[in-house]
Specification:
It is a single chain. This protein is of the alpha/beta class and about 475 residues long. It has one domain. Helices cover about 55% and strands about 5% of the residues. The radius of gyration is 23 Å and the shape is globular.
Length: about 475
């Protein structure tokens, strides 16, 4: 069994005229920054929450694992590779082979690399609340099993029938994502929601309350803020606007303290259910708890107290336990998240207040000096933002290298033959890598990593990325 193909919600075109933050590569695109300063603020909020929450760390963990699985697959296969790899794998598995040996080899590659890769992507889409036919019909029983695969030690068998349940699943056939109804101009639509909608609602609120009532905005930006208004009560909202939206910020943050993944999964209470883990369900349960107790707050200084109250009521792990675990992680590859956790231990909502990022001498401003993403600006091309230290060229070169490899692998997996250009237009390539052209840079990487050679990839359709 392998989940159906879906797009990666964090892997989009570098050439977009939209502004967006790509957490999968820590890349910020400011395509609409000139015409719409709100867009820059909007994406900045996404960076803040991604770096400073356990859910953001989970996405990094799953993205890293997916990249590793594709790379290990490319290394393990001798000879040409048919692309898109995902489509080939689905077709090949259906084909009845006359060679038992060939079938055994394929099944080994399938279970070691392709199946867990697909499962990781499915879990990301489920937690995000991706609105497609696969997530609309996916059940808690299925996705709890998939999560167990994601939390297993890499390289172990991924026979889904052999995976032990990691959750108390009392409603196996219930849908794995909560849903919400949205009344449009012509009809009412219902759609699944998750971390994506929570995040977009939060960024929308930071842009300004008046923009929440912009009828041109997509429902994904506004649905959850309006859900909070419904819980407050429309007759009370006029004098409780600040309470509603400060509380939204607190429970949106708490929803992302999800005890899942190889690192934070250890903090999951023994009697947890799927609904205690999925960000959308966590948001819904936290909102219900606040409304039933009329525990609305209008000051972010009360954020941790409210979060503690909700966790006690729901039997959830307290946020401070997550932050202490994150702050203790000394692995160099997770320094960004570790530093954010250490700041939050001193100031719980430090990353929830945009002003902290621009205050001279503040911990959050120093954090961004150290951990700014690679940034693509329409006027200046791509600028690698790294701290000005003796290691800056090395860090920049590593970021560009990883970006090239990850996008090449994604293209081979889902789109077709990886063709140049792969890197963003306007990248200061020679300054950061010492190579004058992307062709020269690609040839250099292929000489170091023969499994990455583009002439290995073949397709009957002749499609290219």
């Amino acid at each position: 069994m392998i989940p159906a193909p879906m797009e990666n919600p964090f892997r989009r075109s570098h050439g977009t005229d939209r502004s967006e933050y790509r957490p999968s590569d820590h890349v910020l695109v400011l395509g609409a920054g000139r015409e719409n300063p709100h867009a820059t603020l909007h994406e900045f909020v996404h960076i803040l929450e991604h770096c400073s929450t356990p859910y953001g760390f989970l996405l990094d963990e799953l993205n890293f694992r997916q990249n590793l699985l594709i790379q290990e697959f490319l290394k393990a296969v001798d000879g040409p590779i048919t692309v898109p790899i995902y489509n080939w794998a689905v077709t090949e598995r259906k084909r009845v082979s006359s060679s038992a040996t060939a079938t055994e080899i394929f099944e080994n590659l399938f279970k070691r690399f392709l199946q867990p890769w697909s499962i990781c992507l499915h879990i990301v889409n489920a937690f995000e609340g991706k609105d497609n036919k696969y997530i609309r019909t996916s059940t808690i029983g299925e996705d709890a099993t998939f999560l167990a695969v994601c939390e297993a030690v890499p390289g172990t068998a991924t026979d889904l029938d052999a995976v032990d349940d990691v959750l108390v699943v009392e409603l196996m056939e219930e849908l794995s994502c909560p849903s919400i109804s949205w009344v449009g101009d012509a009809r009412t639509t219902s759609f699944p929601y998750g971390a994506h909608h929570i995040s977009e609602g939060l960024a929308q609120l930071h842009e300004g309350l008046e923009r929440c009532f912009d009828s041109q905005r997509e429902h994904e930006y506004l649905a959850l803020p309006f859900k909070v208004i419904d819980f407050v009560g429309k007759n009370r909202f006029a004098h409780m606007q600040k309470h509603a939206f400060v509380t939204y910020q607190v429970i949106a943050d708490l929803a992302r303290f999800t005890p899942a993944g190889m690192y934070y999964g250890r903090l999951r209470p023994q009697n947890s259910t799927w609904k205690d883990i999925h960000p959308g369900y966590r948001f819904e349960l936290a909102l219900e708890t606040v409304a039933q107790s009329d525990a609305w707050v209008d000051d972010l200084n009360d954020a941790e107290s409210l979060a503690q109250f909700v966790c006690e009521e729901r039997g959830w792990t307290q946020p401070r336990e997550f932050l202490e675990l994150g702050a203790s992680n000394e692995h160099l590859t997770v320094r960004r998240h570790r530093d954010a956790c250490r700041i939050r231990l001193d100031d719980f909502m430090a990353f929830g207040q945009i002003k902290h990022a621009t205050e001279k001498g503040s911990a959050v401003a120093a954090f961004f000096s150290d951990h700014m993403p690679m940034t693509l600006h329409p006027d200046y091309g791509t600028v690698c933002c790294f701290p000005e230290t003796e290691h800056e060229p090395i860090i920049a070169a590593e970021h560009v290298r990883n970006l090239f490899i990850s996008d090449t692998c994604w293209c081979a997996m889902m789109n077709g033959i990886p063709s140049l250009p792969i890197l963003p237009a306007g990248l200061l390539l020679e300054e950061y890598t010492g190579k004058k052209t992307e062709v020269e840079f690609a040839e250099h990487l292929e000489s170091e990593h023969p499994w990455l050679r583009r002439d290995r990839f073949v397709t009957l359709e002749g499609d290219s990325c």
